[in-house]
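Entry:
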Amino acid sequence: MAGWFTEGATEEEFRLLGTRCSACGTVYFPREDGHCRNPGCAGGELAEVALSKRGTVWSCTDGRYRPPPPYVSDPGVPWVPYTLVAVELAAERMVVLGQAAPGVGVADLPVGSVVEVVPGVLDKDAAGDTVHTTWHWRPVAAEALS
């Protein structure tokens, strides 16, 4: 989705993009560009903000069936299960859903473990002309946390 994450960024620079209300500080993801939805806020300007790169696993599950549209997938290609992860972002204290990086399964993501957001590919057409990009969650090695 355009505007939901930094596009063309290196893996180190990659971030999800949200918006923050200048009046109350509420952070939105997906981004809110119209008005602050906080009922206790009189409203302020919404500014784009890069969200935390890391968070903790709140929950995860395997996606063992082909989701219905608008999920993009080629029905002619065999379905490959994926792992869906709910991550509580470190600074924002909000939970964001996303797929785990390829090769990462539920057994690799115990609740409370630290993960980081990285760029990913959701789908590409057979000719490779159209690539749908997204974000993935990848476990952070224990030594990287020190």
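Residues 66 and 78 are 10 Å apart (CA to CA).
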